[in-house]
Design goal:
The structure holds two protein chains of two kinds. Helices cover 33% and strands 16% of the residues of chain A. Chain A is built from 17 helices and 16 strands. Chain B contains nine helices and 15 strands. The longest helix of chain B has 14 residues, at 109-122. In chain B, the strands form three sheets. In chain B, strands 10-9-8-7-11-12-15 form a seven-stranded mixed sheet, with helices on both faces. A six-stranded antiparallel sheet of chain B has the order 1-2-5-4-3-6. Chain B is α/β, with parallel strands linked by helices. Classes of the chains: A alpha/beta, B alpha/beta. Chain A binds chain B through residues 168-170, 178, 206-209, 212-214, 232, 234-236, 238, 240, 244-245, 247, 250-251, 253-254, 257-258, 262-263, 266-273, 275, 346-347, 394, 396, and chain B through 23-24, 27, 37, 41-44, 68-69, 83-89, 216-217, 219-224, 226, 228, 233, 235, 238, 252, 255-256, 258-260, 263-264, 266-267, 270.
């Protein structure tokens, strides 16, 4: 047996200078040959830690074994039995903190690139139209067609339930269509995965805002025996600093929704406009901040600053995305906090006044508190500011459902293992329970809840 | 798909449509709005529900052809489908028995005011309606508003019908005569709502306005519709659209409404149908 290559097979990407000006996908993915080569690095552990590291417990060594033999269809079958959205997860999961983090190979060498392999399987694998199970006639409602909602819909339909997903927007996918940009997750991938879930028998109802069009109690009245609430993260947060309502200040949600969901980068072919600015400051250190900064660049900005109050080490964004952003020319302003947004006199942004920070005492989790450095104020001359500092709970569902309980931040209280809320027959998962988190953690919660809902409904019978 | 079942031209560039939308008609309350999109490349725009029939499952929308989407909507015919329709959205207007309520409607705002006026009347209030327009041609829903008001006053800017002047004129006279007014509701152009609120603030008459900022998703997710009320930022799509007129920063609202002025022009210039409509 030849020695295992200590390094991962690298994946080609569009060159930074070129990609920073287009919306096409940055990472080009493995070729079949590259995927097979990378698959051969897998040790095929008897007790695979990677599976434990995966929130939805994909049989990773098994699918990699199929890839090794060049059987992408078989590999896809294996992944799909646990994960309805491999094309999405292969692209946006933080594998470095999950499956790849615990890969045995990673102790001395680079871990197997499980994420890239998953993507290759989704790219090359084909799966026949699944045999639609005869439904058992028991109706289940899912609120929100984002990662959690789509996952549980697929799972429950697979168990025979008659599932209807209610989505407020005009397109299914949630954050996958309004939030994550085309260059990181092509929308065609999301569409294909949604189509697959529909072939399982899931009904999608768009333009339905639960809490307004129907309340949860009405859904119950209409015969939905169980409800899974996965309505997402909610309201965008602002900093409450002067000037935040000036023209040219966007929440990341608005900025990304205009570009991704509404295709404002194709204005005027598409009707929704966006202001393309010359100099942009994006505030925040997560993936959404990176997505916003890189989107601003692609809209033609000459200079994009990323303003973050801690240092690079503390950034919640994926390392890969931070590297991509830096390669593309985003100017990272670490240990900097905005104080106010400046008015050009006509109600538009002309600058962002900031102050430099240093890291002070650290909390139990090791996260250090940023403290302002006296007299270090300075001005970034920008004509657009994008706030990417997180979200807060949208209270619509809790306000219209009196017997649901929320925590002090307004997120729904739900059992960690089952998603059971305070209201009988109502389960919840994803960002509406945890606050902003990852696609895969929402999917993991949905997967657990699918089992719990199945058990609950079986007891009812 | 929601279908247009009736279309009626009310005035130049002001159109009334009835849409078959049973899910919206079932629960919509006075003061609420919908968001619609007309085609795959379309934008999402908010429009207030001017009337509804729970029985027939229909809602009425009255709009002015001012931008690309409203011009496109105005060109649609009966039996045409609305691509996407989401609603009802926003908090319903707080209706109570207060005594005398003056409902002030300007332009198409008159139609938005209609279900609110009716609800205040049904709640047992004395309702005085003031509706205004540029000239006689632009006075809409006179009969409908008249039927649900104890008194109806009409104003036109040029005096071609009713009282000559702005809607604030008869209101000002009522205040001068020290008539008892428990609440003023004003819906119309921002400048009109600002003028009404300014007038009533000086004499402490509670005033409610319905704000119409730019919106995108309409569910609270994007924050573009933020308005400043009592120096606090609120999302009009979620916390509103009704707010205390004495606390609203109308100048900010006007500035924010102008964000995409340039793009709106480009959009209309690009569109043939819009060109025809603007001639």
């Amino acid at each position: 047996m030849p020695a295992i290559n200590p390094k991962q097979v690298s994946m080609s990407k569009q060159q930074p200078a070129e990609r920073a000006r287009n919306f096409k996908e940055v990472a080009l993915g493995y070729t079949k040959e590259e995927a097979i080569l990378e698959a051969k690095r897998c040790l095929g552990c008897k007790k695979p830690f990677c599976v434990e590291g995966c929130p939805v417990s994909v049989d990773i060594p098994q699918f990699i074994a199929s890839v090794m033999e060049g059987d992408f269809n078989g590999a896809l079958q294996i992944i799909k039995s646990k994960n309805s959205l491999p094309g999405v997860c292969g692209r946006v999961c933080p594998q470095e903190d999950q499956c790849e983090k615990v890969c045995i190979l990673g102790r001395k060498n680079e871990p197997v690139s499980i994420g890239r392999l998953e993507r290759a399987v989704a790219d090359f694998g084909k799966i026949g139209i699944p045999v639609k199970r005869e439904t058992n006639g028991i109706k289940v409602a899912v609120v929100g067609a984002g990662p959690a909602g789509l996952t549980i819909a697929g799972d429950l339909a697979g168990m025979g339930y008659q599932v209807t997903v209610f989505e407020a927007l005009h397109k299914p996918g949630g954050v996958l269509v309004y939030g994550i940009p085309e260059f990181r997750l092509p929308k065609i991938i999301v569409e294909q995965e949604v189509e697959y879930i529909k072939t399982l028998g899931v009904e999608l109802k768009l333009d339905q805002l639960i809490g307004r069009t129907f309340t949860l109690d009405e859904l119950k009245k209409y015969g939905y025996r169980a409800i899974f609430v996965a309505s997402g993260a909610g309201f965008p947060k602002f900093m409450n600093i002067p000037g935040e309502n000036l023209n040219g200040v966007y929440s990341a949600n608005e900025f990304l929704t205009r570009v991704n969901l509404m295709k404002a980068y194709c204005f005027p072919e598409y009707d929704t406009p966006i202001k393309a600015a010359k100099k942009v400051a994006v505030v925040g250190g997560g993936n959404v901040a990176m997505d916003s900064a890189r989107t601003a660049l692609r809209l033609g900005a000459e200079k994009v600053y990323n303003v973050y109050r801690r240092s690079r080490k503390e950034m919640p964004a994926r390392l890969e995305e931070v590297e991509n952003a830096i390669e593309e020319g985003i100017a990272m302003e670490f240990l900097v906090n905005p104080l106010r947004i400046m008015d050009d006199g006509n109600g538009w942004v002309k600058g962002l006044e900031c102050i430099r920070m240093e890291l002070g005492a650290c909390d139990e989790s090791g996260r250090c508190r940023p403290i302002p450095l006296k007299s270090s104020e300075f001005i970034l001359e920008v004509d657009q500011v994008i706030m990417a500092i997180g979200t807060s709970a949208n209270p619509l569902i809790s306000a219209t459902t009196p017997d649901l309980k929320t925590n002090k931040w307004g997120y729904l209280e739900a059992d960690e293992n089952t998603g059971q809320t305070a209201k009988e027959g109502v389960f919840a998962g994803g960002d509406i329970v945890t606050g902003s988190a990852t696609v895969i953690s929402a999917m993991g919660a949905a997967r657990k809840s699918a089992q719990a809902i199945d058990q609950y409904l079986k007891k009812l019978k | 798909m929601p279908k247009i079942i009736k279309r009626k031209q009310l005035a130049p560039k002001i159109v009334h449509i009835d849409i078959q939308a049973p899910d919206v008609a079932r629960t919509v309350q006075p003061g609420q709005f919908v968001i619609l999109r007309l085609h795959e490349q379309g934008e999402r725009i908010p429009l207030t529900v001017a009337d509804f029939s729970r029985q027939a499952g229909t809602i009425s929308i009255i709009f002015q052809e001012v931008g690309k989407t409203t011009i496109d909507l105005g060109a649609m015919k009966e039996q045409d489908n609305i691509h996407n329709l989401l609603g009802p959205l926003g908090q319903p207007t707080h209706i109570a028995k207060l005594g005398t309520v003056v409902c002030v409607g300007g332009g198409v705002g008159t139609a938005s005011m209609h279900p609110i006026t009716r609800a205040f009347k049904e709640a047992g209030n004395k309702v005085i309606s003031i509706i205004g327009g540029r000239n006689k041609e632009f006075i809409i829903w006179e009969k409908e508003i008249g039927a649900i008001s104890d008194q109806l006053i009409i104003t036109t800017d040029d005096g071609s019908y009713g009282v000559k002047g702005l809607v604030t004129k008869p209101l000002e006279e009522m205040i001068r005569r020290q008539e008892k007014i428990d609440l003023v509701v004003a819906i119309g152009p921002v400048i009109m709502m600002k003028a009404v609120s300014h007038l009533t603030k000086s004499c402490g008459i509670k005033t409610m306005v319905s704000l119409n900022p730019i919106m995108l998703d309409g569910t609270g997710m994007c924050g573009v519709c933020r308005v400043s009320v009592n120096n606090e930022t609120k999302f009009a799509c979620f916390h509103g659209p009704d707010f205390d007129g004495h606390l609203v920063d109308f100048d900010l609202l006007m500035k924010r409404l102008g964000t995409y002025k340039t793009e709106e022009k480009i959009s209309i210039e690009k569109c043939e149908r819009c060109e025809n409509a603007s001639h």
